[in-house]
Amino acid sequence: MIYLLAALLIQASLVQSNILTYTYNGEILSVSISLEQNRKILLIGFQNQTLPQEFISCKVAECTCVDNIVEKGKHLSQNPVQSILDVSCTEDAINFRRQQPIQLVPYIFSHPTGGHRQLQTYTNASAVAYNDSDMTASLQVTSLLTIKWLFSSDGTSIDFGILWGQQSWLGIGFGQGMSNVDMFNIDIVNGAVRLYDLYSTSKAVPPIDSVQNLNLTQYTISNSSVKFRFTRKLSTGDSKDTVLAQNGSYTFCYAYTAAPMIEYHGSNKNCFQITLNPSGTQTNNKSKGMIIIMTILLLLA
Q1: Is a pLDDT exceeding 60 seen at residue 260?
Q2: 280-283 and 137-140 as β-strands: parallel, antiparallel, unpaired?
């Protein structure tokens, strides 16, 4: 049986977009990617991989593609086992075939301009280790996600501390859905956290907000978690940023996969209620409600 799927990645700042199509016959993955103008390098990842993770890098001008791998505690490097069978190119497309024993869903990994989108980049050597001992309020959303916060003494800013229970990308929206929503996400790149201020306009890769109003200050990455801290103004003056307030109640949503950088999340998403009280510990009311409902159903069974 041949599987035929297509994925379209859209960036609002670009007129053209890359289109990746592929087929898989149970043994060979055939990929075709239409190219944007001036695109020099492509990096193709596979959805929902855990370490070690496979990537394919293609140099457009040279019409070459190679297999790469990211292993635990290591950077992206060329895979000693090469599975690329052949590569061909036209003026506006690059095509390759790869021997593949299992079906993996490919996606275009790197930013369409050829580099990685980024707001700030820190290396492990210069990073300030995460610390939230001064934070005065928290919400445990799930066993994987906890959010802590602290308002500035002048009441104009807020520090968020995010505790994420796996080493992967994570996106959080200050609202529901994908239409006109203020968002941020982190990627894990070369052992460092990258933070992006986003504004989603449709069901596609959220574009970077034209005005960046997040300041990443601390992070710590372990084998099984990511902890990071950033600050932002409660009211940034940017029409694309949600205005936050002390004691304000909001619906936030989050999305993720096991991959280190943002990709299509599928069903890996959820929403929760949060009240930004100056102090106190909260739990996810939706989760509590589900527990109560399940308990009642068990008692009635």
Answers
A1: yes
A2: parallel
